[in-house]
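Q: I'm building a small set of examples for a reading group on sequence design. Run inverse folding on the following structure and report the sequence directly after it, with nothing in between.
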């Protein structure tokens, strides 16, 4: 973790706790008492869960340890779950892929050219089709085949890579494998997935062809945290595009890939910027 001792650094603090009076005052008061300048503040009290959520950006001529010391009375008084980081620090990220390239290319481009605050430390593929793309962007590619008989060994290799590379975020960039319940628990809150979300929904093979046969009018995508419940983790972002009868299957595929890549990119950026807080099976997203 980076410390700020010689010049003001902008920090981002997120907290969640049972809702009640005095939470905002306790946090902002502790910061103001030491002359720190709050540059952004958002909060939300959820009447359904009874929880309070807050995200604060603050300029402080202080180390992380000094900030934590100043805020600890508030953390303890309200039973807060909290996280403190430097604004813009690039989150160490591992991308998992299969054969579709659109999400991989988009994230690597955004990291390089659009300020996406992630540091892609490796790309893992259960096929080697996208190795050339990873290498073009200077990223190590790890081919980890997965079969019914080798799934456990493949996931052990993933765990090893997460540890070896000090990975903070895993992104399933159209990775066409289902993670085990055990791995989902090990990486809870650290894995983001993307998938289509047709209205109505079509499961199984060739979903765009199924959608075309049924005359679907909306194509969508959903990005969410991965849990042991397949495609049912807390949703971070969704998007849709309207289509009509004139669209061929190939058109739907292209439109769908475009929706998927931009939906995933927003979810990854918001996570890396500490804008997403878990609220049970839902999320709070401070955009």
């Amino acid at each position: 973790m980076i410390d700020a001792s010689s010049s003001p650094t902008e920090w981002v603090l997120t907290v969640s706790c049972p809702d009640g009076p005095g939470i905002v005052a306790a946090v902002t008061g502790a910061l103001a008492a030491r002359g720190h300048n709050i540059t952004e503040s958002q909060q939300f009290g959820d009447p359904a869960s009874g929880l309070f959520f807050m995200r604060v950006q603050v300029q402080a001529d202080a180390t992380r340890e000094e900030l934590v010391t100043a805020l600890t009375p508030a953390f303890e008084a309200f039973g807060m779950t909290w996280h403190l980081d430097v604004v813009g620090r690039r989150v160490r990220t591992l991308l998992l892929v299969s054969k579709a390239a659109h999400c991989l290319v988009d994230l690597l481009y955004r990291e390089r050219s659009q300020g996406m605050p992630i540091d892609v430390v490796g790309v893992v593929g259960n096929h080697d089709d996208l190795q050339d793309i990873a290498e073009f962007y200077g990223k190590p590619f790890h081919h980890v085949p997965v079969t019914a008989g080798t799934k456990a060994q493949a996931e052990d290799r993933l765990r090893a890579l997460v540890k070896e590379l000090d990975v903070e975020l895993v992104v399933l960039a159209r990775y066409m494998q289902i993670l085990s319940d055990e791995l989902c628990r090990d990486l809870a809150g650290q894995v983001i997935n993307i998938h289509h979300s047709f209205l109505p929904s079509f499961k199984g093979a060739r979903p765009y062809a199924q959608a075309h046969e049924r005359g679907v009018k909306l194509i969508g995508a959903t990005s969410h945290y991965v849990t042991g419940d397949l495609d049912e983790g807390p949703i971070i972002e969704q998007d849709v595009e309207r289509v009509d009868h004139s669209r061929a299957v190939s058109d739907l595929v292209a439109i769908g890939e475009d929706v998927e890549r931009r939906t995933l990119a927003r979810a990854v950026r918001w996570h890396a910027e500490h804008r997403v807080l878990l609220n049970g099976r839902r999320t709070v997203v401070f955009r």
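DSSP finds eight helices and 13 strands in the chain.
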